[in-house]
Design brief:
Blueprint lengths: L1 E3 L5 E2 L16 E2 L1 H11 L3 H4 E6 L2 E4 L1 E2 L2 E2 L25 E8 L3 E7 L10 E2 L2 H27 L6
Parallel strand pairs: 1-9
Antiparallel strand pairs: 2-10, 3-5, 4-5, 6-7, 8-9
This protein binds iron/sulfur cluster (SF4) (2 copies).
Length: 157
């Protein structure tokens, strides 16, 4: 259910060196992500997400071309809340599209010009397994949403 552009051997997120590049390009989220964020922050979904759904996906809102959850010190408000969107937990891989076929397939690519690529710890099988699991969960949550939508029982928030 997951296609990688290329493997990454070593990586660490040096977000202060790249001005939190990955948090400036919008973020696709599932209905599950929205529910978890709403629960953790006490905010209403419409306060932080664009609720115009596109094939089971939504977008987090941006402010001054940065994710609404990016703080002034470039850290993520949701980090300590343990409510980061699934895709944000997959860095240094970023969303690269979805194939909607018999099975839904998520495509991810390693972020270009990341200052952390080739630095930090060697990423082993555990990291690969956790990215895989996050990708599968992402796809599962899209499927669940689309199924509920077709049954008329979908609910956000
Ligand atoms: S993954 Fe790389 S490009 Fe993205 S925020 Fe971290 S250091 Fe910057
Ligand atoms: S939710 Fe956090 S990690 Fe994800 S894009 Fe926004 S600031 Fe970055």
């Amino acid at each position: 259910m997951l296609i990688y552009s290329e493997p990454v051997e070593k990586w660490k997120c040096y977000y202060k060196e790249c001005n939190a590049h990955c948090c400036t390009c919008g973020r696709e989220v599932t209905a599950g992500d929205i529910k978890r964020i709403a629960k953790a922050t006490g905010k209403r979904p419409e306060e932080f997400a664009d609720l115009k759904e596109k094939k089971g996906l939504f977008m987090l809102k941006s402010k001054d071309e940065k994710c609404i959850f990016l703080k002034g010190d470039l850290s993520c408000t949701l980090h300590k809340e343990d409510a980061k969107p699934l895709l944000c937990r997959m860095y240094p891989f970023l969303f690269d599209g979805i194939i909607y076929a018999d099975e839904i397939v998520l495509k991810v690519r390693s972020v270009k010009d990341c200052p952390g690529l080739g630095r930090g710890k060697k990423l082993g099988k555990n990291f690969e397994a956790s990215v895989e699991e996050l990708g599968n969960r992402f796809v599962r949550e899209i499927k669940d949403y689309l199924k509920e939508k077709s049954q008329g029982t979908k609910e956000i928030g």
